[in-house]
Amino acid sequence: MFNFAHWFTPALSASSRSVPAYISERFDHRAVIEDVLEQGHEWRVRYQASFWRARSTQPDAEFLPEDKVYVVGRENLVLLIQRRS
User: Fold this and answer.
1) What angle do CA 32, 75, 49 make, to 5 degrees?
2) Which helix (H) or strand (E) holds 28?
3) CB within 8 A of 53, min separation 6: which ones?
4) Full set of structural domains in the chain with CATH
5) Nearest to 82 by CA among 18, 29, 25, 7
């Protein structure tokens, strides 16, 4: 008999979902700030033809629309970004 429970069981425990995932070196990490959601805390970025919520890994970061950033990781559905030098 087919086991449906296997298909509906979460693959990750709740505690492991908050661990940051680091982006592979194979991909282009460049993104552009599209909008400020909460100044100094959260932005909307355009990354690989999609829009994402993003937070900075740098304390007291300030980004404006059209600023260019690097994506350095991900926490759930939020990208982690740093300013391009």
Assistant:
1) 35
2) none
3) 37, 42, 43, 44, 45, 77, 78, 79
4) 23-83 (2.40.50.140)
5) 29
Which of 58, 69, 73 minimizes the C-alpha distance to 22? 73
Euclidean distance between CA atoms 75 and 84, whole angstroms:
20
pLDDT tens for residues 61-77?
A: 999 999 999 999 999 99
User: At residue 80, what is the residue type?
Assistant: L
Structural tokens at position 63: 């980004």
> Which H or E element spans position 4?
helix 4-8
pLDDT tens by residue, 18-65 = 556 666 555 679 999 999 999 999 999 999 999 999 999 998 899 999
Three-state SS at 43: strand
